[in-house]
Design goal:
The protein is built from 34 helices and six strands. The protein has helices at residues 6-22, 34-40, 58-68, 82-87, 107-127, 135-143, 166-173, 175-197, 200-208, 224-244, 253-260, 273-287, 294-314, 328-336, 338-341, 352-366, 377-392, 398-406, 409-412, 415-418, 424-431, 433-442, 450-460, 467-470, 492-511, 523-533, 535-553, 557-560, 565-596, 601-612, 618-629, 632-640, 666-684, 693-711, and strands spanning 25-26, 30-31, 44-46, 94-96, 150-151, 162-163.
Amino acid sequence: MPYCTKDIRNLLRAYNLLVATRDDERAIVGKVSREWLQAEREDWLHLSEVTPGVFETVRGREILCESMRPDLDANPELVNIAPLIRQIPFSDKLINSNSLAKLEPSIASDILVGVMLQGVKRFGNRRCGSTRLEHDVIVAAMIRDTIGLTDRYSAVLPGQCKKITYRKIDKLFGKNVTHHVKNIKKYHLEFLHALEEKTVEDTAREVKAGESNGLASLTLPRPYATVIVAIEASQLRLVARAAGDEILANLDEAKKAEVRKLGIDCDSEFPEYSWLKLHHERAEAALALEGVDYGALAEPLEHTLMMSVSDVLEQPHKRRRLVGRRGKAVNETHNSLPLVGSFNASENFNSIDTLHVAALEMMQYLEKGRRKSACTMVGHSLRIAAVAEKIFGEALEPSFAATAILHDVVEDGCRPVAGYDQSLNNIKRRFGGPLAAMVAELTDAESSVAAQQKAEATLLCDSLIVAEQQYNFDRFTEMDIQPTATHEPYTLGGIITKIIDTAISEEEGIRDPDVMSSWWKHSGIRIYWSYHVRGRVVRPLLVKLTQEIERYESGSESAASVLNEELVAKLRSLIEFSIVSSDNYAVQNLAIIAHEYGLSADERDHLITTFFDEQIDQAQFQRDIVDTLLAESRLKVNIRNGAVPSESYVALYAKTAGTQPKPDANTFVRYRDAALQRARIAKRLQLDLSLNSDLRKGIEEVVSLYDLRRVA
């Protein structure tokens, strides 16, 4: 029986479409500049680098108390923070920038729309389930705002990226979803127009007549009234969180300048007030529409989000109650939704409902998270699940997609990083042992080499292992969940996730080299990460998959128990995807080296061609490229003119703390050997990855994109 039904396929494609089009949009302000994205990237900051006003907010007080008084678990609102603030200039404490409150990615509202409507579908109509709310309507509601936007994954070069059209929606999701997208946009526009045209006299007359919503003339067919409520409430939830965290007042000057163009005075006492009022009015009007499901949507919202925002609008000093780990605008609102409060994900870990809940869980804990690229952590997680669907299609189990979505939530949603208390035990309680166990194997332990040791154990294992073999699914309540046990090999699902995760990280680096911080703009740390950090995990896994595919195709009985012809074809596609991604990332790293050494366009082309040429042995590569083309004298010229900070940033130098960097090309030469190993794997599996015209075009596009971003 195929696991990836049309609904699951469409949901994962919807997630991907949202990331492709709206991951650079933020609550309230919409699309932001690349400078904004660059300023948001993950980094470690001294407390003195944080805008002082942040420490007056709910989250800022928590950060200050945890950093300056880690021995005292006191109520941050009751602590006198004045003495702590005076100590900041003398403190060496570092915090992760992902612990600071930020405007949420706009796609968080679309994830929330899906959760709200899936709850109505399952528990609406007095808990009998809504037969009119088909999942195609839910997907349409989630992707409605992507029409006309640019799909950044449709091409390498920005100028070649395509717009999302109804024809594209047809192709991705089918005509029924397209039909619902058009209807939702039509009825939502009618709703907004009716609300805008409403006068005080009209409202008074309609209220007197018992038509309390003031939109007596507007009648929407079911289930679209319920959809409008989900859309408006989800947008209100994002604004409420921003208001509670006092985001706009504490933006840096560059971001404030962007926000002022929208007519928002960031220096006012309550900059978010007008937006909070606007979206509250819209949500209130939507909730009063005829045909809205009450028990599964209206009632949970009215008693949490609507009530708390109404209190804040009347008494603005209460806005702090909207946020925090138990905030009324987030935690209480989410927990009141039937798909969170009533659906038992632990007993249904392989369902589409669990996929929705997993996306909400990830979004709630990683909403502040930014990557070192222009991508949000929310976008990164959704992208991995979507690529898995693209590669594996109906062979993809929902539980695996949920695991892919949740794979970073424990590491990056914990207190030291994001300020939350996410843990594997929490995942186990929420989603059950099997899914928690699969998340656990992807959660790195404190040891930096744990994942590498686990990958080596996988390579030495007799065969591939599926999750049901590795974990006792029948006794999941008794499972002891621990991160990345190094003696246990990765399951097949874990292998797939690790490989796709690395490829997506490489993709982010390729697309956003200009957004990276100073170290990540240069070849040293990028090649070190690619070879020593991720490479030592992915290389054994690719070799293992190659061995198992060869065993299966040779007729070995030991491989037949896990693999079949369809799965082997999918794994071949996965390996090809990984090889192309790693090669493209290597091409960009070579372009960076060429810039660091001041190579001409022809010399850069020679460097790239030679790097991938299997006919040139390492001795000749060392002699012709490392010793001659990449001469130390050329690098020193670029250091003197400021193009490169120092030798420590360059891949051909050893990184020895406290000493003058010395030439050491070992990592660079081994990096090339890893590229040649990928070529040998492609040959063994007869993958057509030779330097044909299409692949050559891809290389040229990666180099052109680097040139474009560098100049910009």
